[in-house]
Amino acid sequence: MVRRSSRLGSTLLHGALALWILLASTPIVWTAVISFRQYVDAFSTPVKWLAPFTLENYTRLWIDQAFYVNFANTAIVTAGTVTISLTVGCLAGYALARYRGSLGFWLLLVALVFRALPHSTLLPSFFTLFNALGINNHLLTLIFVLVAINQPFTIWMLRSFFVNIPQELDEAAMVDGCTRAQAFRRVIVPVMWPGIITTGLFSFLLAYNDFLLSSALTNAGNMTMPAAIASAIGAESEALLMQGVAGAVSITLPLVVLVVFFQRQIVSGLTQGAVKG
Amino acid sequence: MKNLTSMHSLISRLRPKGRDRALAWGLVSALAAAAPQALAACPDIKGQGEVSFIGNSFPAVSHVARQVEACARPGLKVTFKLTPQAREETERAFAAGRSPFSGATVSMGEFVKFQSLGQLQPLTDLVDKYRARYKLEDGMLIRVNGQVMAVAFIQNAQNLFYRKDLFDKHGLKVPTTYAEMLQAAATLKAKEPGLEYPIAQTFAKGWDGATEFANLLAGFGGRFFKPGTAQPAFNDEAGVKAIELMRQMTRFMTPNYLASNSDDVMNQFQQGRAAMGVLWASRAARMDDPAASKVVGKMAFAAAPATTPGGKTASHLWWDAVVMPRNTSADRDLAFQLLMEGLDEEAVKTGNDTAIWIRSVYKPTRFGTGVAAAAKAGAPIWPSEPFFSLAHAEVGKVLPEALTGTLSPKAALDAAAQAYLKVAAEKGFVK
Amino acid sequence: MKTRSFLSFVAPSVVLMLGLMAVPLLLTFYLSTRHCAPEMEMVTVRQSGPFGTQETVTQQVRKGPDGQPLQSCRFVGLEYYQKVLGLDRGAVLQDSGKAGESSSSGAAEVSSAAGKPAAVANEFWSALRFTLLYIALTTPLVLGLGFALALGASVLTQRLKAVFITASLLPFIITPVVGALSIKWLFRDDGLVSVLLAQFGGQVHWMAQAWSAQLLVILYGVWHVVPFAFIVLYAGLQSVPQDALEAATIDGASRWQKLRYVTVPHLMPLIVFVTLIHVMDAYRVFEPVLVLTQGAFTTSVQYLTYHVLLVENNPYKASAAAVLTVLGIGLLLVPLLRRTWREQRGQV
Q1: Residue C44: in which H helix or E strand, if any?
Q2: Model-level pTM?
């Protein structure tokens, strides 16, 4: 009796979990399916399950609309944001992990408050400032904005990774004659690579997926992929709409690859701030 | 390749002296190189330099851009940037110290804005100079107080789209008034299986819905403002009638009408879910593309219906034009010529079907019949008062409540009028 | 670590945060109290075009001696705040003249409308209301579903677990714009969801009324954040103290009681953590509102600021909306921050 009900329970459980997987993946899978169709089949009434396959949305998007330029922009912005974020963040995270004074605590709290700031609240002044300085619509400006916006999150995450590295390591290095900076560079950082990679992943995600700031601060030739996709979809033309669909799939592919290969790091990153030890 | 080698062997067989041979060969190659240049596009344009333009990505503008860029040659670099962000980029460029673009295609509303900010340069002298060469027509010239400030090239209006096959099948005539349209919709809904929502029109909250209201208001003889002032008049009887007509129409529209923007309405027609509606003439051609539409050849077009029997068509007229900013650094004469190349008779002939051109050589296709009809019927031009867009936006905001019945039409319009007065006061249009 | 080294290590990060977050925030405060516009004068012009000639009233910018448009800036104090909050009662309708012109029924409505603020809901309060509703509904759903998934995943075999976690992470890492669009295309008229609903005899027009449009945005929110809660709580489940569980079993506790009295209390810090992060992120909800509804029936505080800035083109009013938005999240965070403070204090 017990075994039968537990088998039933187990089947139900697996069924429920499978249902969740279905719900989680259907939107993007369906988008991928319709991206290989012409508009008349993609947004058809009634829904078409099978339709002629075409790659024209992708060729038109990547070649005619020069999506590779947007791809390059995203690559530049993401690479720049991640490297600068990590460099600056590691220094701060390490210091916050090692410093015992209350200044560190206050800094963390202020960073937490900053993390809550809606990005659009900074836009009016960004526009005013950047237009006045003439640095609007530059990728470098966007990079620094994204780095700054992601700092609170980055230093929180890196700090929690650094806290897990025993103090004895730097103390030993300093006893051996290193300055604090040297100890940091030569001893701690090599040990920190897993944590750095994990934090880098999240910095990457935040920069790669950003839409609000990228679309507001860049224009046509400088747009990153999310902004370009949104602009194609809102352009009141079915051809551009289908290219936007192809773009949506194109931008998601690297992310899927990322999740498959870096699943452990993502999980550890998500739990890092929460679980101790 | 074969010709060259045979030519070479021919020359060598003639056995001229070494120097003469070199000379002959040089002559041949010089001729060969010169020939393409002599046949270059835009032979009338003489000038060197770098000129760039900007426009949005509509098919008509793309066509113009191609013609303009075809004038490029060694020494003359021409670029025409096409982007859905054209409006924002153009605004930025024209307001900057120096504009990277020497010209742009703009809509009527954008023209009014740039003109009011004094950012456009008069083109009168250039038009006089090149009028004969490019056969510029009077209808193309946008004059403000006598000065030519823009050259219009395409026009647009809202047209009636309808399924001719279904209308013929049920013996329905093309509706000339909205009352007839509602009747036709009722008939089709009752008699045509699967046609639950025969009418598709852009009632989406915001710009689209407010534009529908504006068309119907004009049809009822109403005005947005009291003549000569910025005081709202759209909340009077004509406005109420317009909203009530819109409400009647929603009975035959998909319940999602508050999200129906032009993309959605297009989809409804192309998928055969709707049988009639008023939409932009410029989008009509997409009905016949089998990659986008299931109703190829079945849609026909006519002037938008009138709101009252015998009244004028409830639509507005729009144009797009090319302008040149004051703050351009390139040679204005050269830039003007290049733009005119993009709009000349040849361009219109080759791109006849991409838009409804203003030139007289344009042969109206069936897609554009409604626009000509609207112009003939005396539809008004889309208003260009600077405070109009404020009122338009406020009406767009109250539409959901007005159409779903949460607010009475009068209350909704009064609220919009109130809100408009506040914003207009902010901007100094009213005291 | 010495304070001096600490300061030099955190300097670059602090400079970036101050320069690109704190300073702009202060600038936003400043901007919200001002109003700048080019000086315009009304003129009548004769405009001619393809459709004939007409006299229109239009604006012309005033130019200064250098040929540049004149800008005038003035301090407006709290005026924009009043406007955004709908507290400005200045009935600007022209009084007797207008009432006399409209029909008799119209006059009554006009004068009554003039007496109270606009009958249409104020944009800011609608945005705030929906944002709070969104937070209030998504948070328990995210926690509940995430916890259920975490419990469920614990019984999976190792290989299945890896696949399950990878697939579950998809909604979380997808670009929000793309995710919202994907959901939109499923829920359109005659989309996949409509087909499925039709099987059960139902039909919902998602954009036709407020509750369904709001539900759609909330659905997106839950779909997007559940993986986050799931992963965190799942990790937490791995570290539930086994001896406490065993003791409870020995004491005869049912599974439900074990869950309630051992597991959940152990997971409390994690639950607080997920709640904190989610509340902060949910307050910023933007992409689903932009993509799914374009502001019809659902707006959010972030969407409002964005809209006022980029569509209405008023950076000063947008700044006022922005400051109010910041105040909102500040108030919301106070209880959660207090809790975090106490915990961190305990740690440090």
Answers
A1: strand C40-49
A2: 0.86
